[in-house]
Amino acid sequence: MENWQEVYASAKQRCHKCRCCPQCNGAACRGETPGPGGKGSGNAFVRNIDMLKQVFITMDTISENTEISTQTDFFGYEVSLPVYAAPISGIRLNYGADLDDLTYTQELVEGCLAAGSLAFSGDGMYDEMFCGPMDIIAKHQGYGIPTIKPWSESDMEWRIKLAKEGKALAIASDIDASGLTNLRNSVTPVGFKNVEELKKIKKMAEMPVILKGILSVKGARKALEAGVDGIIVSNHGGRVLDDCLSGIEVLEDIVKAVDGRMKIFVDGGFRSGNDVFKALALGADGVLIGRPISHAVIGDGANGVKLYLEKIQLELKEAMAMAGCKTIKDIQREHVCVKF
Ligand SMILES: Cc1cc2nc3c(=O)[nH]c(=O)nc-3n(C[C@H](O)[C@H](O)[C@H](O)COP(=O)(O)O)c2cc1C
């Protein structure tokens, strides 16, 4: 396939649960978990989209015609753009696509690397749901970020060991998965982690650790206390708590509180390069995109992911050009106006 429109049309044909709506905004799939939707009323997913629409980009059109660069780095690893694939698991169950999680991860990792980006991989209630994706990252010289659910200490430990052996660039843990009902009741249940337990995880890892699912200044301060290297400001795509805030709303306060002491990523409802620009202007170091990248993999595998990320990069460059920014570092708070 040659463009994103073709890829998305193909995804629509192949998804039998997700509707692949013209705008992936959580409205049609409210409460569809399992499925692609947000939990309960689906308000949290819908809010992610709505709040991003309340951030506006300011223009500065008197500038030179110099080349615009979206290049930056992820813990020292050079990336073409600060946009990463969010961890997604259960492709068959959630999208109704005939694609197993292993093939999904293989295509995802390859597509991200081809676009100069990186993928976070998922985890699930069966061991192979972590081991398979981790193996794929290892086969790509560790260029990816395995995401570990908040299991018991021993269950997290062996996963961290595999990540170390596979030379992963970093590990993430979606600590908010403690809100996923099916996993709380599974054979090896997930649970909450306190600061002391998180300190142990950081110590075990001996590599950058990123906590996914922070949604308050209080939570960010605890992450700092635990000594981790980064957080993902996220409501898990609206799938762990109905009626909660969106990442973009709390981002700026968290950025101020953290004051450069760890990396801050954000996700939830990002659908364009303009959206990415908004997060960077509010102080994020990078953005994760979930559902649309799943559509890209389902639609045309690695090629779909590459085409999608290139589209996002082009849009980001356009926003940067119109705001008078030549590099990612040039994107500052003054470049957006927040109306919430
Ligand atoms: C079907 C589905 C499965 C997901 N599985 C995981 C997972 O295994 N681990 C995780 O940390 N987050 C998971 N997430 C959350 C995403 O990583 C991400 O936070 C969210 O989808 C971002 O919002 P967006 O999809 O609107 O871009 C999942 C999300 C969806 C929609």
From TrEMBL:
Known catalytic reactions: (S)-lactate + O2 = pyruvate + H2O2
Cross-referenced Gene3D superfamilies: Aldolase class I (3.20.20.70)
GO MF entries: FMN binding; oxidoreductase activity
Residues the record lists as binding glyoxylate: 239
Cofactors named for this entry: FMN
Residues annotated as binding FMN: 212, 234, 236, 267-271, 290-291
UniProtKB keywords: Flavoprotein, FMN, Oxidoreductase
Family: Belongs to the FMN-dependent alpha-hydroxy acid dehydrogenase family.
UniProt-recorded name of the protein: L-lactate oxidase
Classification lineage: Bacteria, Bacillati, Bacillota, Erysipelotrichia, Erysipelotrichales
